[in-house]
Each structure stands twice: as C-alpha cells, then as structure tokens.
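Bench notes, afternoon.
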Amino acid sequence: QVQLVESGGGLVQAGGSLRLSCAASGGTFSDYAMGWFRQAPGKEREFVARISRNTVYIYYADSVKGRFTISRDNAKNTVYLQMNSLKPEDTAVYYCAADRSNAPGGTYYDTREYAYWGQGTQVTVSS
C-alpha cells in the first residue's frame, strides 16, 4: 500500500511558477510509474504528466507541454511537477498517482491506470 502526500500548491499570478511535490511512503517508490492529474470545479479529473520508474518515458498533456516539467528523485521517494508560465485555466486541485505498470505508451492518461492517489493540493492562478 502506497501513501502519497502532495504539497506546494498555492495562489500565484498568471505567468508565475509553482513547484509541486508528492512524497510517497509505504512501498518501494521505484516500483511505480508516477502521474500528475488535475481537477477543476465542475470538470472531470484530467491527465497532466507521467514519468516512468527510471525516467525514460515521460508524457505530457498538450495543454501543459513546454510549460510543465515532471521529475522524480527515487532516493527521496518524491515526484515533482515544476509549473511555469501559469495560466488561469491551470487552476485546479492537483493530484499525484502511482501506477504499478511501467509499460510505455498505453492508456497512461487514464485515471483507471493508477492504483494509488494523494489527497490533492490546490493551485489557483489569478489573472
């Protein structure tokens, strides 16, 4: 059983930056591919980014490509999401998630791929 705790959310002006962190415990972190998702009020949870166990495979949603960077530190059991050039439409609760499968491609964007989820951290971008 993996426990995930996100941090680093907050209020930022458009064009600003935030760095989210997700600390994992209760399992072998390097056994899991990790993803970030977000959910805005009244909308479905959507894929943001994913990184494989050994960082070889990285995927981004088109909406964040070039602005967000996912990374991980297996020694610290932590995955990060660096968010630059933030826009008001990036406002959402951001969740990290763990996937035991490390296969490239596939339905990495589907929430059903991920067995473990954090509680989320709020990101608000003001215009």
